């Protein structure tokens, strides 16, 4: 029996305090290829722990479809690991046979769809990865037809993110985060960290950590006039000082770019 039985007009009344709309919730899709929760945790931490702001409270759907038939994964471990990395799991994408055990972890089941970058896609950030698959949770449809809304004003074009300029040395323990590119005119000392969603330019010795394209921008690059870093990273692909740099870039002008998920270190010809 309907709660509003005997009062049909009430179901049509529009409340000033809330409104139900149909829509989609955008989320990153994390494909899980192993049922070994411990190995998965170690891999996630080793990949992203060095970039503490990579996810920045992103919401993530767990895609279980790559697991083999009969495999089950301790999703609570994955959920806790993502929380450590400042990300939040909001649901799972699963095959029909996986749904009973997946639902036991308290996450809702979501549908997924392939999303290709286009003219309407953001120019940067995690939603700008061309060809990335996302998860979408459909919101409930309105209980009753709503009056046609007035025409919305045309959206203003997105303003470009200004380049961050740092003209002082970065000391050990200092961290800089740029939503776009960052230009640094003084030394980045050991123990200092530069994080950017775009490119990193250091016109001085780079001795600390430099992480470019942290929101997944694989086209980002790192440029510096004296390469001596503790760690360099582009879009989550990193290299530490434990792996010796080639002699033609160590302590010299260089650029770092990403190709086929590998870091390429090249001399930067200064003329």
UniProtKB/TrEMBL annotation:
Q: Where is the Septum formation inhibitor MinC C-terminal domain?
A: 166-265
Instruction: Read off the InterPro entries from this record.
Output: CAP/MinC_C, MinC, MinC_C_sf, MinC_N, Septum_form_inhib_MinC_C
Instruction: Give the highest taxon in the source lineage.
Output: Bacteria
Q: Where is this region: Disordered?
A: 113-157
Question: Entry's Pfam families?
Answer: MinC_C, MinC_N
**In what residue span(s) does the Septum formation inhibitor MinC N-terminal domain sit?**
18-82
Can the keyword Protein biosynthesis be found in this entry's annotation?
no
Where is coiled-coil annotated? none
Return the Pro residues bias intervals: 139-150
Q: Which UniProt keywords apply?
A: Cell cycle, Cell division, Septation
By its UniProt entry, which SUPFAM superfamilies does this protein fall under?
Answer: Cell-division inhibitor MinC, C-terminal domain (SSF63848)
Function of this protein? Cell division inhibitor that blocks the formation of polar Z ring septums. Rapidly oscillates between the poles of the cell to destabilize FtsZ filaments that have formed before they mature into polar Z rings. Prevents FtsZ polymerization.
Which HAMAP family does this entry report, sorted A to Z?
MinC
Q: How does it assemble?
A: Interacts with MinD and FtsZ.
Q: State the family named in the UniProt similarity comment for this chain.
A: Belongs to the MinC family.
What's this protein's name? Answer: Probable septum site-determining protein MinC
Q: What is the lineage of its organism?
A: Bacteria, Pseudomonadati, Pseudomonadota, Betaproteobacteria, Burkholderiales
